[in-house]
Specification:
The chain is 24% helix and 34% strand. The chain is an alpha+beta fold. A seven-stranded mixed beta sheet has the order 1-3-4-5-6-9-7. The longest helix is centred in the middle third of the chain and has 17 residues. The protein starts with 6 loop residues before the first strand and ends with a strand. Bound molecules: coenzyme A. Coenzyme A (COA) binds next to helix 1, strand 5, helix 3 and helix 4.
Length: 174
Amino acid sequence: MPPVIATLRTACEGDIDAIVQLVNAAYRPAPGAAGWTHEGHLVAGPRVTAALLRTLFVDHSVILLLAEGPKILACVHVKAVGDAACLGMLATDPAVQAQGLGKLLLQQAEAHARSQFGSRRFRMAVLSVRPELLAFYRRRGYMPTGEAEHFHPEGGISQPRIEGLQLLWLEKQA
Ligand SMILES: CC(C)(COP(=O)(O)OP(=O)(O)OC[C@H]1O[C@@H](n2cnc3c(N)ncnc32)[C@H](O)[C@@H]1OP(=O)(O)O)[C@@H](O)C(=O)NCCC(=O)NCCS
């Protein structure tokens, strides 16, 4: 497979449909689909909708993209909350996962939060039952804060498939 040459850019509202498709394919794919990690077996329904994404186009909130020409390959949401930046919706197109794009975009999200929002901490919430993902973030310096909360789908658009699903908060100093 030839190496992916991706460029970084900020998403605009015209990207919403492509981001919805990418995020749902990465997080909640059909059984047997490509990708090394997803939550389709844990949560039913879409991860995002166009309506939900539209609410992210506000001050102190940005969606960063890695794209190859017109094709969006990866995305992440960065939102400033006090002196922290909350990172979410990190997703790589399943067809090009495990080629370094997720790590690259996470670094870019951190750099953006530092330079544009003055963030001193990066925070994210991860499902407690995804050890492979918790290990991925631990290798990038994200440690559990001890905070846990019941999984509550944003906008009520999805439903947990297992009882007692929890989110663990991870944090890294900027
Ligand atoms: C998580 C995700 C964004 C990572 O993106 P990616 O482009 O595949 O990641 P990269 O290629 O940059 O990094 C690959 C890392 O995963 C590891 N990895 C690859 N395949 C793996 C596997 N089968 N099991 C465990 N780890 C694996 C690699 O070892 C590498 O980590 P390392 O460099 O520390 O060794 C992507 O898999 C995704 O979109 N997943 C679905 C959505 C999701 O769960 N998002 C995060 C929610 S908090």
